[in-house]
């Protein structure tokens, strides 16, 4: 099948169902038919295109069975092949949806060889053939196979053989050809080692047969081998001796030079003499003289006395005569000629790993070759069990796929488990830190390398080093709700993995990003307060340093007050102590002018603000928007871009689309501390700061004053307060009273 499925479904093709989740269309796998036709789903619609085998909260054995190329990664072709194989082996693909690690023979397709193997395993474990086969039954059978005499791994051990001679041959094969570990762990041999051993044994047997058929090769029978070995041991030294004697016969003046000089003996005499020392062995076999014969004993070099004795006993005496006590150059040539055929035969020995000629006598080779048929038969019998073993592995694969395959599809083809908050396979556990819990936690191999890509997720990420005893691991946790004011490197928390084990967690690296628009709203004010606090702290520190310096100067002056005052010269006034400086009047005036200007500006601003009248609330909103608006806009943009993809891509996944983490989803991934329902609270805090009361009161007064000014400027007070009763008007004297107009007139 091609890497890209057709974009348009052809008639008769499988009809899929999708749901919009995380900003992308994700396929819904609800039926066994969906799994059977997973290969028809367009790869562009898969959420993930690859994931690592390690670091997931998933059965590693199942992943290893899916990873057929053993590259440590799961890819769509491997997952598709696993789905198609499992659906083909089952009678009904819906069994993959139901899950579970049990399987009855009737659940397996009739055409599958696994049906008969399942019944065979049920008989072995003592169950009825119609019973359900469990994963434990299969894995337990695998462990049992390792201890059987024939376990189907193609390896036999010495314990496999029941005959002592065959057992000895297997041990010899291991020694000479190397061994292979059996499924039980014991060392044994495979067919390759056995065939190589017997091939070499046959070659040696044929080589030895050639010597037996030729009498000239073995003039002394089997003793010829020892004679040839004795000749080889001294051949070079004997040739050297007779060559020196020939030179001495050519020119007698060379005799002193051909024999060892006195200095050579002086060097030997300087220390304890060892008859096996190289210096002594380098001297001639015997004193050199013209026409000299080589004595077999007596006046010979002590380093070679033993070798010459063996030469006489094994070669000279049997071939040249018992009476010879010394040999001349002609007899030496004759001896070499008699042993030449044997030496040529020895040189033609085929190369083997079975040992020397002395280690492989004909009777031993005959014993080895006699066991050849038995050893090969044992191998054949063990190899015959391999078919059952392969079917047993396939049964284990089918049981694991039935249990795990559907869950893997919900975490690879789609991220249904993650968005349904059922715990995705990449979620390592839960981190408790800073009054909240974080569920989006991923294991990390290299935090620095991971952060380079994960920063594109636009998410607040905290990398933590987790320790539990001697065990260590690194995780990254996404903080998707609450504020980040108190998240900093070095902060400690507790991490609970998926098995419930607790780990000490410490923040080692932080990638800060907004978690909500509300947090961005107050962020500028918090930053302003922090800047003010920092500046105040700096000024206070500077003032404290100045005060400390002044105190130090005063203390020094007081401590040295008793010292003599330097004499005053004639005509020079006495030096008066310097008084502390005073504030100049001009400075005070300048400060007053500055304060007055500032007050005038503030009053003008307040007057303009009050003059806005009914537009005061709008002005307040405008000021707030001007301060918090940019921060909120940036936070809104980042929250829309917040994605799960870069976090998983940095962990070795290949995410196919943008997996958005919305504000609502983020709120469920990072949960803040809340009081349980029905809990009662005592609001009076005995340790609350008392100074906070007047600040609250001041704030209430400011708000009340602002509302009062607004009500006065807008005329709200005139419209809503009752009008005062006006007194009757006084009529001036002499004036006629105004006519009272009656209703009639």
Number of strands: 19
Helix content: 40-55%
Taken as a percent bin, the fraction of beta residues is: 5-15%
Q: What's the Cα radius of gyration?
A: 52 Å
Describe the strand arrangement of the main beta sheet, using strand numbers. 13-15-14-17-16-11-12-19
Quickly count the helices.
26
Major sheet: size, sense and barrel closure?
8 strands, antiparallel
Q: Provide mean pLDDT, rounded.
A: 82
Computed structural class: alpha+beta
Multimeric organization: single chain
Task: Extract low-pLDDT stretches.
Answer: 1-9, 729-745
Shape: elongated
Distance between the termini: 109 Å
Structure in a nutshell:
The chain is α+β, with helices and mostly antiparallel strands.
What would the keywords be for this entry?
745 residues; alpha+beta; eight-stranded antiparallel β-sheet; three-stranded antiparallel β-sheet; 19 strands
Structural summary, described in words:
With 745 residues, this protein is α+β, with helices and mostly antiparallel strands. It has 26 helices and 19 strands. Strand 14 and strand 15 form a beta hairpin. Helix 6 (135-147) runs antiparallel to helix 17 (386-409) and helix 9 (223-250) crosses helix 13 (305-320).
Secondary structure blueprint with pairings:
Blueprint: E1 17-21, E2 24-28, H1 32-36, E3 48-52, H2 60-66, E4 73-74, H3 76-89, H4 95-98, E5 102-103, H5 114-124, E6 133-134, H6 135-147, H7 164-177, E7 180-181, E8 187-188, H8 191-213, H9 223-250, H10 255-258, H11 262-269, H12 278-281, E9 294-295, H13 305-320, E10 326-327, H14 329-347, H15 362-370, H16 372-383, H17 386-409, H18 416-419, E11 429-433, E12 436-438, E13 441-444, H19 447-454, E14 460-468, E15 471-479, E16 492-497, E17 502-511, H20 517-559, H21 585-611, H22 616-641, H23 645-649, E18 654-655, H24 663-669, E19 670-672, H25 692-713, H26 716-720
Antiparallel strand pairs: 1-2, 3-4, 3-18, 5-6, 7-8, 9-10, 11-12, 11-16, 12-19, 13-15, 14-15, 14-17, 16-17
